[in-house]
């Protein structure tokens, strides 16, 4: 993806990927077709199209490349200067007039700029929101590229895009998913990251025809399935696993959430061996994601092997405690605590946590897991006394008696496969086991059969 580095450099698509995408683009190649490369850069897709048509022995169609960057547009012009069928237009693809492009297109291909909401100027945000129905929430520019491409695609036309996988599940892309689902989403292929990009890429193939057909999903482990995508804007990735149970993990949970964010772990988290006697009433066993790795997946945490405690200045009902011993101890670091954003701007009390901990939920038997992991692994807090740190997620079941069955289920290969297919990718092949995905993990009815759950019925 172009623009996925911290300095917003343009990242060129590797030629082998460009050629692979071109092979997916042309369903019925014709020299009379019009082809658009949206955000063409130096023209790697145009090169791939020329090579592909040459290998097919077909006369080259009209190809239009649009590029906003002057230097890149000039390089593309020079590269294709002797090919009359190729035209490079220096303009903003999101706002260029259709007339300037010569009308609509039969085929569109793109690896659009990936510019996050934070890096879009307020003026551009306002402009985009007035133009695009997908410019809602914390949108990214590549989402707008998809919408504009659909508008420029002829009925029956076909487009292939290389984008971050995030549009498949983030809330801000709900409008985009709803828009795309009006047409035939032929294929979604999650591919491995390539040099120069930070986001995990996805190839999406779309035909501009109404469709009630299934979409082919190819994940990074090589599995291929066909599913019906939701049409209401809800996440698509959570529909790609092989688990067909109607019940979801969120249906049997009181809470699924990341652990406690203190805003200053170096102050609130201290070695158990150095805990003053006077602070024992406010100290709870605590664990980080890295510390979880010392325990065996699927088994209960051994409290004796926990080396740290968290000082929690809250009562179970969420109110701040004003005990003198605790205040005196924390006062040693008052300047540091007062420098936090939540105190300066958020007007929280100087020793408050970044987020108020819901102790009434946390201090129950629960299941724990690392936020980022190579393999999905789960652990048990049988006694319900651990206060997990922010790098650990936790799930509190509505009935703790199901924990032994649930932890056994979570360790199965089918669950691991589902999570690998649905979770967002981090660096080096790791996955993010975030709550919005975990909540939608399908669970079999027999896990909770006979147990009264919060839905108010017995399964």
Automatic annotation (TrEMBL):
GO terms for biological process: DNA restriction-modification system; methylation. PROSITE patterns: N6_MTASE. Its EC number is 2.1.1.72. Gene3D superfamilies: Vaccinia Virus protein VP39. Signal peptide: none annotated. It comes from the Archaea. It catalyses: a 2'-deoxyadenosine in DNA + S-adenosyl-L-methionine = an N(6)-methyl-2'-deoxyadenosine in DNA + S-adenosyl-L-homocysteine + H(+). This is site-specific DNA-methyltransferase (adenine-specific). It comes from Saccharolobus caldissimus.
